[in-house]
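User: what does the whole thing look like in 3D?
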Amino acid sequence: VNHSLRGAFDSDGGLVEETRRQWDIGAGFPDSLPATLPSANVVRVCEDEVLWGGGLVHAYGHFLIESVARLWPLLSEGSRADMAVVWTTPRQMPYIRDWCEAFDVRTFELPEDGVMRFTDMLVPEPAWRLNAWIAPEIRDIHLRARAGLDVPSAQGSEILWLSRSGLPRARVAYDEVLLEWLLREHVTIVRPETMSLAEQVAAIEASQAVAGIVGSAFHTMLMAERVPACVMLCSSQVRGAHVDQNLLLGQGTAFVHGLATVGAAPSRKLQFPVKFPFGYRILIPEVLRALAKAVSPNLLEDENLRLLATPENLSPRVGSASVKDELMTAVARVLIDPLSMHGRMKLGRRFEEEGLHRCAAEQYMMVAELSDDSMARASYHAAMNALDEQ
Amino acid sequence: MRRDPEEGTLTRQGGPSILRPLGSLEVSGPCELIALRGVRGAYEPDGRLAVETTRLMAEGKKPPDAVPGRLPGRAPVQVRGDDVVWGGPLTFHYGHFLTESVSRLWPLLPGGVLEGLPVVWSDCPSHPIMDEWLKAFDIRVTTLPLSGPVRFTNMFVPEPAWRLDTWVAAEIRSIHLQARRGLEVPSRPRAGVLWLSRSGLSRWRRAYDEVLLEWLLGEHVVSIRPEAMSLAEQISAIEGSEAVAGIVGSAFHSLLMAETLPRCVYICGGRLRETHLAQTHLLNVDAGFVQALALMQPRGDGRKSFPHGYRVLIPEVLRALGESVLPGIKQDPWLAAFAYPERLSAKMTGSTVSALGKAVARVLLDPSSMSARMWLGAAFADEGLHHCALEQYLTVAELSDEHTVRAPLYAARMLSRMGRAEEADAMAKQVLAVDPSSREAAGYLLGS
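Assistant: Here's the predicted 3D structure for the full assembly of 838 residues, as structure tokens:
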């Protein structure tokens, strides 16, 4: 085993395929590995029985569903319960540390350089192979970690919104700040990336439902002792991992097509690599209706939300409702005509007038990214400065 | 209950117009004025433009016609001493013809102060719809010579019954009802909701997804293409319907002639033209203005004229129709699904639709996704719905750089199947400019 390679090699130096991360049925290897061990410089030999954990992926979701998926033999009582786990490519992230401490896993320290030879290594099948299978053992693994986690008490909430709006620009969808502002009195908004693992689990267990744009934060539910209802906002494609998790947890998750593309403009202009859900905007009326239908029947008793859930009703027509609030009218215009940059600049100004600089900045930023409006960029910086001063 | 658009998401474009009561318009003259064919105004004997003879917009707004301030050049070639009525410019454009060109004819109505006098128009365009209307009104015309000014010593100049964005007078309705009485309107089966389609207009004057909407609405509406119909046929269709709906446009001005007035649903962009609001007030018609058009691109590049560049917000239109003139939509599970397309998501209501239905829903939820539109186009083509497929392929070809060969090629294929060889040829040339080796495209060239 080499510290920096996500696979193990047999005594002849050949790669042992079942030690690799594998996706899908058939060949689907996410990690690039040499077919033979590049260097046979064995610096240490271990003759104790150890468990192969695999390549440790530090991305939050992949850690929860793949990196710990081979630990199930440690759940059984007996001598194997105390085996050391061999993980390659380890990274020290707070949630990895918290999880491992909670599970009480004993990690085998690999040498930084050279090859480590193990004479008695157990290679369990992973309890989750992406897009291929999921086994109940993955839930048991996480429940053991949960049992060891010191979970603080959290205030109960009807809907917990797993926000992405505080993530780096390249990983944020348009209009999530706007949606969060609209929902502010009806949901508890958390930013999982700023919370400890225990705080995330506490917030989830204390909520009736969890909602948000589909992403790895939803995998924390694997650890929750009580699993809430769930609404995941997706593009037209639902990732198999979330569908599989839903089946495993028996959640009845509503996968709602609530994200739409905004065209090719942003990716053409920006200088940084982007990841899902960048380039998508949230379909706010559809999301409001979906939340009401799936998890919060009283949501649309809020008059503003009811109007925005069917914004065409704000048109002057027979029997329609009216809204006098200029800010809400500006919001409705953006919801109906989301690519109207004029509408977004107007909404940005309305937010600024109300001192809602973060909401304003989101609108200006969208105009700046989707059009050539230099005024939008200037307004964006002004709004961000005002936010900093606050 | 009718409400002012400014209460909602729409902003008014132009106006506001005041509604002038019957009898408040005036006629000036007889006076001496000089007119010249093709010049959209008449001149005083000293050569100054008589401003009241031109088309005027709202105060402070630039007049729509470029009319010289002084009589151009030559001395009059004719002098006419008979009484005539100044009709003003005869505008070819359908809506402007109905709202402006005929708006000075009110003194010619039966019992009017100028009844029976001939009318002088500054232009003499000919169009079947105009000819039909003028014949129905039974108007006498004094035609200006092809060149050279004519001096009229006894010309009457009525105020127009409709000055855009300024006023509309009750007389405009009387003018059109007079024409209506002279029109031989064919009988037509009674229809519920009449959809005034723009989908057959040139691509620069139509919105995206209207063909799709019309296909979805199916038998819930009677869809017509006014530009392909005579005036009498249009009036017949309107009078025979309980409601009229469509993307806002000049076809709605045909209501001015209808003896019975249906309810109206105007599908608008963010702006509502004052002309339509003024007409609604004038006719006291039960009308709704629904903002259900959205821009397809962040920037306005390439837009020609309204509603080009906009797409129809189909779920919003379905819900608006369901709440107003088409309550039956709510009971149609097929349409109800598309009115709330998010319910087709997994675990929402358990609704199931066909593969074609799923492709439609995907486009409704993600209208900027060109792959979704290509998929929908293919699904339509599989069903033999070539006109629906064509709309999707043309949308992709126009808006995206992702499918520079496939989208126009498939559009050419649909056009060829529909027997529209010349258009298929044009689209094939677009393909060949990018991929000269395309055998299929070469096969759609005329003469191949």
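In plain terms: Confidence is low (pLDDT under 50) at residues 317-321 of chain A. The longest helix of chain A spans residues 374-389.
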